[in-house]
Amino acid sequence: MLPSRMTGSVQAQPRAAVAQLPTWNERSSPAAHFRMQVEEDIKAEDIYNDFMGLDESGASVPLGLDEKEKLYLECLDSFYNEGGKAVLPDNKYEQLKVDLEFSESRIMTYSRDEIRYLLANKRYKMGKPVLSDDEYNALRLQLKKLGSAVAMHDTPTCDVVSGVCKMDMRVDKGKTRLLYLPGWAGGLLVFSEISFWTLHLDPLLSILLGVVPVYFFADFFTTKIFAQQPLVVTSPCPKCSALITVYFGDLLSVQTDGIIPKAAGPPQPQIEAICGSCKETLIADRDNMIIATLPMKK
Predict the structure, then answer these.
(1) Do 187 and 195 touch, CB atoms closer than 8 A?
(2) Within 10 A of 237 (CB to CB), how many other CB atoms are there?
(3) What pLDDT score does 10 carry?
(4) Vertex 40, ends 37 and 44: CA angle to 5°?
(5) In angstroms, rounded to a whole number, what is the distance separating the alpha carbons of residues 255 and 285?
(6) What are the residue ranges in the chain where pLDDT is below 70?
(7) Taking a C-beta distance cutoff of 8 angstroms, is the pair 95, 141 a contact?
(8) 62 Cβ partners below 8 Å, 6+ apart?
(9) Are the C-beta atoms of residues 218 and 184 closer than 8 Å to each other?
(10) Less Cβ around it within 10 Å: N or C end of the chain?
(11) Are 223 and 229 in contact (CB under 8 A)?
(12) pLDDT tens-digit series, residues 125-148
């Protein structure tokens, strides 16, 4: 049976299945190559029991959460990248999935694209890539723009030749949403006043009825009048790791109208930022969601 996020079906095997805990590369520790045998016979009510493995003597052994997550990813990888191969029978796969859901596993909260990204990394380390470089980079950029932690790097990447260090930027959803607050507050106030003086509606009822029209008004007001192409991101400084907040866009068309001569023109995808801690000059790239230091002077 397939995972709920993806389509298709995994055919049950007619005999006991032998599942090997997935290894991310061939240099993993010997413990990672532990072979786990699972029983096929399982009652319907047992699907909510903890997922167990069998050691070489046939005794049931508990598995850690990380081992269960790796086995779950191995099931998905085998089905989608090996022509529908089933690592576990349907009933054991469902038991594993239910176990992970009740264990609040982070894997079960990942989207289809996040799972696809993890499997692409796994296959690449195995020497069997399933995505081209362009497809992989496009998928990673898409996840970064959505704010997915799966595609983020925690440490900077530095080029020895140019001396440029790059760091992934994360969308600050809280501060970005705050930019829409004036439009929301003003829209609700105007809608409540109009509905009260014309239709004599209760203010609380006016707020409930005005959610949808005020939403579109707030979006138009924020993106067209108050802030143009707004986006707030945060990132550690590639040089000193101090947290930096970068704002992309324009406020009240000050930059677009040339009120500030030095920065005249429409909002640009690349802007200059200065770290408040180390005073390093950085270039923030909105399109690629990275912030980088300047090349070393030769």
Answers:
(1) no
(2) 22
(3) 34
(4) 130
(5) 18
(6) 1-48, 54-56, 58, 258, 260-264, 298
(7) no
(8) 50, 52, 53
(9) yes
(10) C
(11) yes
(12) 989 899 999 999 999 999 998 888
Total residues found in the chain within this entry: 298
What secondary structure letter does DSSP report for 297? P
* Structure tokens given for 62: 């508990």
Which of 253, 241, 239, 218 shows the shortest CA–CA distance to 292? Answer: 239
d(CA 22, CA 34): 9
Q: How far apart are CA 77 and CA 92, in angstroms?
A: 16
Beta strand extents in the chain (DSSP E only): 17-20, 35-38, 52-54, 60-62, 157-158, 165-168, 170-171, 227-236, 243-251, 270-274, 281-285, 290-293
CA gap 135, 137 in Å, rounded: 6
Which tokens is 65 given? 């959460």
For the whole model, what pTM was predicted? Answer: 0.67
Task: Report how far apart, in Å, the C-alpha atoms of 248 and of each of 76, 203, 291, 297 are.
Answer: 38, 36, 13, 27
Supply 247's token pair: 């704002």
Residue 144 CA to residue 151 CA, distance in Å, equals 6
Structure tokens at 260: 């500030």
CA dist 215 and 7 (Å) reads 34
26 within 8 A of 42, measured Cβ to Cβ: no
Which residue shows structure tokens 């995994």?
Answer: 10
Residue pLDDT, tens place only, 22-47: 444 443 433 333 334 444 445 554 66
Which pLDDT belongs to residue 55? 66
Strand ranges, E, within 28-136: 35-38, 52-54, 60-62
- Residue 298, token pair as written in the block: 């030769």
